[in-house]
Amino acid sequence: MRILHLVVALLIFMACTDKEQSLTGRYSGVQSSGIGQVDSPMTIVINQSGVKITGSVTPPFSSDLAPFENAKINGSTIQFDRKEGDITFRYEAIFNQAESSLQGQYQPLGCMDPDSGEPCQTDSEGSFRAEKE
């Protein structure tokens, strides 16, 4: 019985370790943004330690990595924010462990039209797909 408990504990430990290591890495792919959903290259770098993630992402039409903040993991869903001036962009993606890929979308947060009080009409929303290198 004791051996069975040790085997189960080892399997749980290995499963947790695999999940932690499976998200960490450099991902490259394509992001589509703007009214015409124009494509541009994208890179996402993720470092995971337990349930905490940090990293950086390339904004649309840029090759510079920008740090992200407020990152969260919920199962296979990740979420993080990237600041650009006064605008915060929220990224949400699903991690497909079998394909080692991320697929998601991003949009600006908190933008309000000062004249109407309605959310801003923006061409800054987009989608992306990136695979682990």
Overall residue-averaged pLDDT value: 83
Can you write the helix and strand succession as a string?
Answer: HEEEEEEEEE
The strand line-up of the biggest sheet is 4-3-2-1-9-8-7-6-5
Q: So what's the oligomer here?
A: single chain
Query: How many distinct helices?
Result: 1
| Main β-sheet description | 9 strands, antiparallel
Low-pLDDT residue intervals, each spanning 5 or more residues: 4-14, 16-21
How many β-strands, per DSSP? Answer: 9
Q: State the share of residues found in helices, binned by percent.
A: 10-25%
Give the helix/strand class.
alpha+beta
What is the CA–CA distance across the termini? 42 Å
The portion of residues forming beta strands comes to over 45%
Cα gyration radius (Å): 18 Å
Q: Any idea what the shape is?
A: globular
From the structure above, extract its key features.
1 helix; nine-stranded antiparallel sheet; 133 residues; 52% strand; 17% helix; globular
How would you sum up this structure, described in words?
By secondary structure, the protein is an alpha+beta fold. Helices cover 17% and strands 52% of the residues. The chain has one helix spanning 2-23, and strands at 25-33, 38-49, 52-57, 66-67, 69-74, 77-84, 87-96, 101-109, 126-132. A hairpin with an 8-residue loop joins strand 3 (52-57) and strand 4 (66-67). The model is unreliable at 4-14 and 16-21 (pLDDT under 50).
